[in-house]
Structures are given as structure tokens and as C-alpha cells.
Design brief:
The chain is mainly beta. It has three helices and eleven strands; from the N terminus they run ββαβββββαββαββ.
Length: about 180
């Protein structure tokens, strides 16, 4: 799973926010984007019925043996995302296996691990769950900067953000989050 860029360009004076200018690489969203809910947790993958977690190899470091690269290293930051196999004997993987063991058979895909012991549980989930990426479609009609800001300003909407998937099957994705507009969840 590649690191996703935002639909709108980052503010160079405050990289935690976006400006009203579309990232050229993501202009496809306006014609081919399917908006789905972005869950706030930890990225996971299931590959051949094995559980993997995301690992970000920092600049100058060597990835662990057996790590599966998700993308090329970022030319600016040097960050290099990988998948590394979870280990039942590693206490850090306990909650991921708690979610994984709820089902006998899983589809090879990427997931978000959410739950009581993950990221302070902003999704308010009892126990722990693996939520397949792209599973919850959203009804967002106005993708303009102002339209998305208004969408995220809805006090009843308690989501982290939106991930757009390319309906043409090219595998493209991009994101936009509430916090990109300076709106707290």
C-alpha cells in the first residue's frame, strides 16, 4: 500500500493543512473517484492468509529480513513503506491477532486495525477489528475545496477522512482528512 497524497496541495507554510489547489496527480478523482471512509487505526495487510503490519523504514535504515516493499523510497524524506509479518509471540501484535482470529478465512487485501488499544480508539470500537479498506462508500457529491470543508464541518459526521479509489481499476488512491482543513474530529 503506497503512501497516499492529498487531493488538495499541502500548505507549504503549514503542512498539516491543505490549500485550495488540486494536486495535479489526483485530478482523476473528479471523474473517476469513489469516495470511501478513511478509518483511523493502523494499516495492516492479509497476504496468503498471513497477517502483516505496515513498517516505515526510515532514511538510512535497512528493512528487516522478509519485509515486502509497498513502494519506492520517498526521494525527499527517504521513508520507505513495507509490510512485515506479524508474530504471535510479539506483544505488539496481540491486538492485531485478536481481530484476525475472529474469522477463519480472510480475503487478501489491506485493512485498518481499529479498536480499544489502537490510536486511543477514535472509531469507538469494542475489542479490535480489521476493517477492509474501501468497504464503506460515502455519499459525497461536492468535491470542491469549499464543498469538502463544509462536508467535514458537519458536527454529526465523526470520521477521520475520505480515501478516493479509482473506479477505472488502475489502483490509484488519494485522501483528504478533516484535519487537512483544520477541523478537529
Amino acid at each position: 500500500m503506497k503512501k497516499m497524497s492529498t487531493l488538495y496541495k499541502k500548505d507549504i507554510n503549514d503542512l498539516s493543512k491543505v490549500i485550495n489547489e488540486v494536486n495535479e496527480e489526483n485530478s482523476w478523482v473528479f471523474e473517476f473517484g469513489i469516495p470511501t471512509r478513511k478509518f483511523d487505526g493502523t494499516a495492516m495487510a492479509i497476504i496468503n492468509m498471513e497477517l502483516y503490519k505496515r513498517y516505515d523504514c526510515k532514511k538510512g535504515k535497512t528493512p528487516p529480513e522478509g519485509a515486502i516493499p509497498c513502494d519506492d523510497p520517498d526521494p525527499i524524506t527517504g521513508h520507505w513503506p513495507h509490510w512485515i509479518k506479524c508474530d504471535r509471540n510479539n506483544p505488539q501484535d496481540k491486538w492485531a491477532f485478536q481481530a484476525f482470529d475472529k474469522k477463519e478465512k480472510w480475503e487478501d487485501s489491506t485493512y485498518e486495525l481499529c479498536g480499544e488499544k489502537v490510536q486511543s480508539n477514535p472509531e469507538c470500537i469494542n475489542g479490535h477489528e480489521l476493517i477492509k479498506h474501501g468497504i464503506e462508500k460515502l455519499n459525497v457529491t461536492d468535491l470542491s475545496f469549499e464543498g469538502l470543508r463544509e462536508y467535514f464541518s458537519n458536527l454529526e459526521l465523526d470520521i477521520e477522512g475520505i480515501v478516493f479509489h479509482d473506479k477505472t481499476g488502475q489502483g490509484r488512491m488519494c485522501k483528504i482528512r478533516k484535519c487537512d482543513f483544520g477541523i478537529k474530529r
